[in-house]
Amino acid sequence: MAEPGGVGPIGPYPTGVETDEQRVEYDKQRRRMLWTLPHGLYVLGSTDRAERRNGMTINWATQISFEPKLMGVGVERTALTHELIEAGGCFSLCTIDREDRAIVRKFTKPVEADLGAKTLNGFAYLERTTGAPILAQAVGFLDCEVRDRVGVGNHTLFVGEIVDAGFLKDEETPVLRMEDTRMNYGG
Ligand SMILES: Cc1cc2nc3c(=O)[nH]c(=O)nc-3n(C[C@H](O)[C@H](O)[C@H](O)COP(=O)(O)O)c2cc1C
Known about the structure:
Blueprint: H1 20-35, E1 42-47, E2 53-58, E3 61-65, E4 70-76, H2 80-88, E5 90-96, E6 113-114, E7 119-120, E8 123-127, E9 133-135, E10 138-152, E11 155-167
Antiparallel strand pairs: 1-2, 1-5, 3-4, 4-11, 5-10, 6-7, 7-8, 8-9, 10-11
The structure holds flavin mononucleotide.
């Protein structure tokens, strides 16, 4: 996750970065720079619109159009979430109460979904327009239908139109950001 495990430095390199040592140093510095980009921290819900559900911690999520209202989310090709979004053509994005920051650690691997009890790893979820799971303790949610997909390196950028949105807690509740944790992703 935080470290691109086992991979050597990744180019391209600017002028003057020529030796292996310089490449390693440049690679590290670029990563540190990327880690300073401010991000929110969310739980992305997915479903094949049949029997499968998942929730995944994500920070590569942002609004990308006013009209229509589009969201972009960057999802690892190898993630279960990727498979479910491809299958179901939808996703949900939940903002998380800053007080509930421990939640995001529970959604970094495929979850245990109980469709009868409507829980993901024991956390209650609800379904709105698309059927993608929305954590009941989210502050707010965006429910999206996939309108486009772009392959971007080892991730896919899914573009979703917001078909339903709202708050599940007081809208003044401070929402979780990456800086509220010791986590990082990317770089
Ligand atoms: C702080 C943090 C942020 C993350 N952000 C993303 C992200 O933006 N996109 C992504 O594909 N995975 C992200 N991950 C990794 C996923 O949460 C997850 O580990 C992996 O993609 C597998 O998900 P799966 O349950 O769908 O298989 C992040 C993990 C952490 C800990």
